[in-house]
Amino acid sequence: MTIDVRPITAEQHLAFIAERGSASFLQTPAWASVKSEWRGESLGWFDGTALIGVGLVLYRQLPKLKRYLAYLPEGPVLDWERTDIEEQLDALVGYARTAKAFAVRIGPALRHHAWGPATIKQAIADEQVTRLSQVEADETSLAGTRWLRQLQHLHWRPVSGDEGFSAGQPKFNFQLPLRHADGSPKSEDELLKGMNQLWRRNIKKAAKSGVEVRRGTRDDLARFHEIYLETAERDGFTGRALSYFETMWDALNAEDPERMRVYLAEHEGDLVAATTMIVVGEHSWYSYGASTTAKRDVRGSNAVQWQMIRDAAAAGCAVYDLRGITEGVGADDPEIGLIQFKVGTGGEAVAYLGEWDKPINPVLYLAFDQYMKRR
């Protein structure tokens, strides 16, 4: 049979993800409503009449031209073990051409390498090591290696930029497995014992200090946002508007009332930390976090993370995803504190394949590439 790519309904899209078990929240139909500056479309891959894959495509128009970048963040959602993936990718490019795309960008959420906490700690301690990829991974996916080479062979281009956050979605992520290798769930005691001594001590200190963590409502997004802006100013990044988080809440929870959550850690009536979490099937993500400069000693950030981890496990999730990290592990790396904080959970650093472009119109793609480099 010839593989065919064509638009599908949001219901078909969601049903496929539910049957599969999970997919990135960036590949759910609702995400198109969050990214209002893009035009979204749900696509299905058909082998005859059988739906074998789905994807959310976001189209971004070039200035003054009706030509688009067709972007599938952390997608498409395909079975990468199938032998006809090349044909499936060709079908995607063919469809994008008819939609007036000058290029297609994909970001397969396919594990390639993983480094466990002991390996990460050794890398941080080794003065000769500055990047995680310099040390041997504890796990390497054969499918990931195969498709890395195949994408190169098929003339897909890796998105330029460093290995951090500049190239769209991060290539390196930090994840805490909530199940054993045999699929059985880990108990709370097992999850706690997997953490390092500092994390366990901080969780106990938060409880002893009287920190209370609760799930909030949409109205509590405003309180989260107040200390999120404080965090942005303290850490030197540009914060998003409250309306962005309200749009996320409305879009994601309209699709599934348990999709997005907000958590608040309070101490004697004062908000000391707040976070948002997203759940799709068996995968949960810590998406945004914030904390106050005042009362940092009561360890509200550790308390709120521990509550989210327990709630994710109770919901039957297999993974608690702390999202992006850079692979820099040198003592002077500006993001070293981030990986040190996350490795304390006992999780692992996971490298996906990264993002890849397929130019359709080489002239327009070159102009777009030059524009992005100037930015």
From TrEMBL:
Magnesium recorded as keyword: no
SUPFAM superfamilies, per database record: Acyl-CoA N-acyltransferases (Nat) (SSF55729)
Keyword annotations from UniProtKB, A to Z: Acyltransferase, Cell shape, Cell wall biogenesis/degradation, Peptidoglycan synthesis, Transferase
Annotated GO MF terms: aminoacyltransferase activity
Entry coiled-coil feature ranges: none
Signal peptide, first to last residue: none
Biological process terms in GO annotation: cell wall organization; peptidoglycan biosynthetic process; regulation of cell shape
One of the Pfam families matching this protein, by short name: FemAB
PANTHER family named in the record: LIPID II:GLYCINE GLYCYLTRANSFERASE (PTHR36174)
Family recorded in the similarity comment: Belongs to the FemABX family.
Name of the featured protein: Aminoacyltransferase
Species of the source: Tessaracoccus rhinocerotis
